[in-house]
């Protein structure tokens, strides 16, 4: 229990002495006895509820805490970590950096989110900034620096998913014809193999098992802070993609003509033999080929992956096979993203429901009026 004692010789004459949940003795002084009594009651109630935190910890500034929080994220992929740091310095610390953790409240977070929206930051940027702050404050709760996370429950409008564009097989041919010869095989691999850009850019000669018409997708190339990083795939899993025979032959020819014999040699590189950068490829190659092929201006490289899904669905592929081919983490991801492309059974179901009701009405009429009686006359 907390004890209150008077110390007349002190500037703050009333002192509350208590033990924290770990058994450590603590003390706090007050000018007025009523404040001391109120604190004593509050601290005992907090201990009973499991809501007590060390007051000195909650005085840690958000800027100081952010440095410690970032250290716990060192295991993340470089691109993800760079995104966290960018959001932190661009959006979180300018507002909350000088705040003590205990002074960040729900209203301050709500106002901050509203200000980010008003500044013109897009839905995705606002959501990512809020996620960074939320993650930091949640760790503070779990580490005993805060009782509750004031960012919990703060809503950010979800950004509409970008419209998917799906090419037909004929449009893929037009694009491959217009793109530089060196990259036509890359277009086919994205459209028929369903690889992500980073997976295709990280593909190595040793991963191409062309005698079996297969490639192993085990790495991904990403860019962070202007530097390229090789790492695991998005799902941290490798997969084997079975190639159609035409793509196997194109890839074999590409390897023979353009790729070094070393097993670790990259299959697709810049004209100077360097790893492909997405931004350079789009600017120097992609946009020109899309325009020359007469395809929509908004066509993204990633839309070739969507195209692969639509081509597979059109050929009657099972959702599980599509999941494996594309390397989705689960079949629910496949269905959430591409479920609308599968043939619908709703028309058939509507016809079946019509038939069900017709039979029910017929049964009702027979029950109500019984069998029809026919009277025969004459011989």
Short description:
This protein is mainly alpha-helical. It has helices at 33-49, 62-71, 78-96, 106-118, 123-142, 169-178, 181-193, 197-201, 245-258, 278-292, 303-314, 319-326, 331-338, 346-369, and strands spanning 3-6, 14-19, 25-30, 208-209, 214-217, 220-224, 227-231, 239-242.
How would you explain this protein's 3D organization?
With 379 residues, the chain is mostly helical. The protein folds into three domains: 3-52; 59-142, Tyrosine recombinase, N-terminal domain (DNA polymerase, domain 1); 169-340, hpI Integrase, Chain A (Orthogonal Bundle), CATH 1.10.443. The protein is built from 14 helices and eight strands. Strand 2 (14-19) and strand 3 form a beta hairpin. The longest helix is centred in the C-terminal third of the chain and has 24 residues, at 346-369. The chain is flat and about 105 Å long. The N and C termini lie far apart (112 Å). The mean pLDDT is 88.
Q: Name the structural class.
A: mainly alpha
CATH topology of the largest domain: hpI Integrase, Chain A
Number of domains: 3
Give the CATH level 1 class of the largest domain.
Mainly Alpha
Distance between the termini: 112 Å
Largest sheet entry: 3 strands, antiparallel
Q: Could you give the order of the helices and strands? A: EEEHHHHHHHHEEEEEHHHHHH
Helix content: 40-55%
Q: Order of strands across the biggest sheet?
A: 1-2-3
Radius of gyration: 33 Å
Number of helices: 14
Outline, from the CA principal axes? flat
Low-confidence stretches: none
Please tally the β strands and state the result: 8
Could you name the CATH homologous superfamily of the largest domain?
Answer: Intergrase catalytic core
